[in-house]
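Checklist before submission:
- one chain only
- standard amino acids only
- sequence pasted in full

Submission:
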Amino acid sequence: MNALNFDPYAALAEIQNGRGLRANWAKRANLDPVRADTAPTLAPLAPLALSPASIPKMDERPETAADPASWLAHLARLDAATAPEGFTSARWRELVADARWLTDRHGESAAALGWTASDLFGLDDTLDGWGGLADRLRGARRATFTDTVARWRSDEVDGWLWRRTLRPMRAIWEMQE
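Returned file contents:
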């Protein structure tokens, strides 16, 4: 098991069975070894988690900062009928509609909570649907926010997005520039 292929449940099994990881993690975290009469938990893995201070901060460029008026202006210039390379026409129309709805309905509150253009409108270069919130909505029209998480729901989709897990991404409007 390496860092790129880490399975916390396999690690728990190793900890519980007394193989390999248990002693090292217990020493690092100053924890007592896992007892056989207790239920397994992920607590021994806590020292391996990233603290909020260690998560890299996104470069707050003007086009990615929390500015709903700028978001509306950028989204108004998008041509929903002309899909950029890598998008089907239907997917591009849906994505533009989701981004516009999100800004119109939740832009001010999301910005007040610290969400950036990348968080809301970022597109993953490798996986469709793994970008910011608009990329994940897929037509959902019920969404709620806190400063760290967004939840959305439709008849087909029910999802959560933890903002701190996002990396900086190009905003949707950068696809047609």
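Reviewer check: The longest strand covers residues 149-153.
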